[in-house]
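Continuing the series of single-chain predictions for the mutant panel. This is the parent chain; the variants come on the following pages.
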Amino acid sequence: MRLVADANEHFAGIITKGKELSSWRLDILFSDDVELFAPFGLLAELEKNYALALRLGCPIWAQEKAFKKQTAVDVFSTKDLMEIKVKRK
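Parent structure:
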């Protein structure tokens, strides 16, 4: 089967672990029966943001909920940042 995979599926499959849905996602991502297509640079974007955050020792600002499931880098949504801003006033 040929599929265009949403970036969320790729990211979630890469950074989540130990959950049943994640296991199914990985089975699909690495299945010989599935041919996946994604925009050029999809994984490079993730890698650049992840590798840069690790190098700088700072969090990532992203709306992607799957990013929050990993523990190597803190991830803040816009809402999170607004709450932090309010607390600082």
